[in-house]
Amino acid sequence: MNGLFILAEPANPWSVVSKITDPFSLSAFALAVVLAIVGAILKSKGMKVPTAVWFLIPLLVAMPIGAAVYQQAITSKEQAIYRVRVTVYDPQGIPVQDAKVTSSFGGEPKKVDAGWEMNIPAATAPKGEKLRITAIKESAFLKGQTELALGEERNPTINLNLIHDATATVRGVVVDEGSKRYIAGARVSVVGYDVEAVITKEGGRFELPAHKADGQQTLLQVEAKGYKAVSLWRPAGDSVAEISLVRQ
Predict the structure, then answer these.
(1) Which terminus of the chain, N or C, has fewer Cβ atoms within 10 Å?
(2) Does domain 81-164 bear CATH number 2.40.330?
(3) C-alpha torsion 81→156→129→142, nearest 10
(4) What is the reported pTM?
(5) Domain 169-245 listed as CATH 2.60.40.1120
């Protein structure tokens, strides 16, 4: 058979027999040998040997061999390697050579012509789960992800398209510039996405979709009753921005 079930030494049956070491299989072989010897002796003396004996002998031999073949196939599958080739493209369809590529099943990506290659042992691939490949080009705020079901094909290829990452949030607190007290009731929005505006509560905190990548600058509009409205840039991501408002 091809694919993951290929045996290490299919042409040599003795290699399979030599791997039979468990007590049950050895006992079956020994019983087959004893029956064969007894049958031969009885036949040489002109005595009739029950037909069932001649059927039992090959059965006793075939059972452990079959078990050994099955075990060797399973072992071969567990030792199989998927060699996954990945080519990354930017939004213009141009191959990218400096992206960071990772795999959900492990396998250190190594640079090859026109992309990356990851060697993933079949034994480490969770059953029923798809392989997830992620590529990031931080300098251009590009990110892409795709999935692949690993099957019989041991050398699959993947084309992964990057898009502009806009998944980060922007968060912070609004405070009074003079007293440094938190301002509740301030209205905060990302310029261009006014419908997503939020109103700060006690503690002056806010969090909004930035529509930018982590680290990109986001333009915020902040206003509150009794204060001068401000527009200012803050980075998207996990860092908390402090925004001070001046009383009118």
Answers:
(1) C
(2) no
(3) 120
(4) 0.56
(5) yes
